[in-house]
Amino acid sequence: MAFDIEMIQKVYANMASRVDAARKIVGRPLTLTEKILYSHLWDGIAKQAYGRGVDYVDFAPDRVACQDATAQMALLQFMHAGKSKVAVPTTVHCDHLIQAKVGASTDLAVANTQSKEVFDFLSSVSNKYGIGFWKPGSGIIHQIVLENYAFPGGMMIGTDSHTVNAGGLGMLAIGVGGADAVDVMSGMSWELKFPKLIGVKLTGKLSGWTAPKDVILKVADILTVKGGTGAVVEYFGEGATNMSCTGKGTICNMGAEIGATTSTFGYDDSMRRYLAATGRQDVVDAADKVASYLTADTEVYANPEQYFDQLIEINLSELEPHINGPFTPDRGTPVSKMKAEAEANGWPLKVEWGLIGSCTNSSYEDMARAASIVNQAVELGITPKAEFGINPGSEQIRYTIERDGIIATFEKMGTKVFTNACGPCIGQWDRAGADKGEKNTIVHSFNRNFSKRADGNPNTHAFVTSPEMVAALAISGRLDFNPLTDTLINDKGEEVRLSTPYGDELPSRGFDVEDAGFQPPAEDGTGVEVVVSPTSDRLQLLAPFEAWDGKNIVDAKLLIKAYGKCTTDHISMAGPWLRYRGHLDNISNNMLIGAVNAYNQNTNSVKNQLTGVYDAVPAVARAYKAAGIPSIVVGDHNYGEGSSREHAAMEPRFLGVKAVLVKSFARIHETNLKKQGMLALTFANETDYDKIQEDDTINFVDLVDFAPGKPLTLEFVHADGSKDKVVANHTYNESQIAWFVAGSALNLIAAQV
Ligand code: F3S
User: Fold this and answer.
1) Catalytic residue among 62, 68, 95, 404, which?
2) CATH number of the domain at 556-752, please?
3) Which one of the record's GO molecular function terms can you name (predicted)?
4) Is the ipTM of this complex over 0.90?
5) Which of 124, 181, 365, 509 has its CA 20 to 30 A from that of 645?
6) Each residue's pLDDT tens digit, 455-477
7) What superfamily would CATH give domain 322-496?
């Protein structure tokens, strides 16, 4: 599992020259974020200053991490790149597909049976292509990345939105879609709009019941779920250096909940301590040599208002514990105000469950602080009023807290110890009685609390708070319990008080583990066979999409004219379809089923021009494909907004759609369509959208002259024989046109090997 010290040393070797050159070009002191961005330019030394929130820039990330749900399609695509090995260090983590029900050993055995073929596939592809594989039960992706791979000043991408967690170790770590990960694994650059910068100055010091979690709960309350969009949040100040490294990870983790591109902290002693405790003194030695490049220039933090687009200041000495929710992580309530808020809003006061874990809060310190509260309850003779469950963040954490008696403490309170995995955080929680839909309250230390997320019950009011507050609220059984001021009645009827939580930042006897659950890849993977059953309904090997035949597309049928909002969820729904994320044919049965048909205002009901009968969108697309007829999708504004999931582009490609013509695109989806070898076009004149009729047949007039900056012309032939010519703009450059010609970006990479 060894981290790649040589790669890290290489990054540091380039740092000084690249950052110094960037500072000269930009003409002012640099923030940490800018230093990391400019030292990871694909083209090496900076040749120009980039506009924040304006310029798209190519970067060269140092690492890639994938979780089991998203890795399937990413790796199926990577297999087509024709590479014998990944170009940058990459890991795969099995953490999403394990349900929490009875307890770790039983639940893990069930998952290993139910998802065996997916795990076997991920294991064999990883083994073949030089990817580190973390087995089911090894832990949650972001905790393992922090423990093993994150390093100050590095840049990584991951196919999970909480990849941002690695900012706790001073990285710029960013969540992406699988197609982006495939590019980087294949040795290509990765594009990002140069972000805006939000500075958060932390003064004072955390104490008592207040934890790092409360910092981000407060920031979420201030910025809301959209406030960080397009920005990197950079934390600094004495409050930042006074905090543990894993606490910094918690804060960066929930940067995803404010929509931030990522969050980060400058290199400091807490990172040195954490790196050393996790067996990476080599990284400390290397980082110390370039320490001034691993934090902002001194002038930046002295006069932050001059260098950040937005500045927030929080005094940690005055910060109260927060409880955010229900249903959204940005609805913040300080613990002292919860009684009044809960009563005013009719939130159920009885707490049914307390859950500790998720990638947000499952460090040694988190577990130790929560256990200190549980221990007090046991010693004070209080029987807890709510049920309690924990998901340790990694096997290393679980083994160490078991050795140190922390698990035994939790078990004294009847706590269920679930697998080292996401569990309830991703809705993998078989909660007894949740199907009854009763209104109830749970508290957890996770990051997201959207309706139905944990247990599928829309009436579960989930509140996000720190692990120690979860413990206190679960013991009291009350949402309005304030451990700073309130007392509890113990089993003998005596009035007792919980004192402040305490937990070591790092285990005094060091971390320990017997089997961390890591499978290193084969040195030479050429002989490794990738296991995919041809009868599987969850996995399917991909066949390359066919190359363009060099002719105009003619006699295409209109598949759907989508009306209004059409996000990636409308194009490729999640929920039950998650199961088919590794099977393109099966998941294509959800293609555009959420899009509204402009002609009848219904979803998943479009006219099959061959029969005149209305049918499901995927069924009609399949009928055209079977008849050898190309099809075209027409859409409205900001088509494809939402997630970066590549399925939303792969499914139409697979079902024979050749072009998507819309009023405007969400940028990532537009790129995804291009990568899959499709034509992503926009109306030169938006009102032409109204000319498209339900029975139209479409001919391209000048596709044979496809060139950068040159609009294309399409002829729409209506049922009565009349015709409309529509001019379509596009943003393809030469290399993107080459993707179209080759059939996909991957085909092109494979052809170049
Ligand atoms: Fe897993 Fe929840 Fe984190 S799903 S990766 S624990 S946000």
Assistant:
1) 95
2) 3.20.19.10
3) 4 iron, 4 sulfur cluster binding
4) yes
5) 124
6) 889 999 999 999 999 999 999 99
7) Aconitase, domain 3 (3.30.499.10)
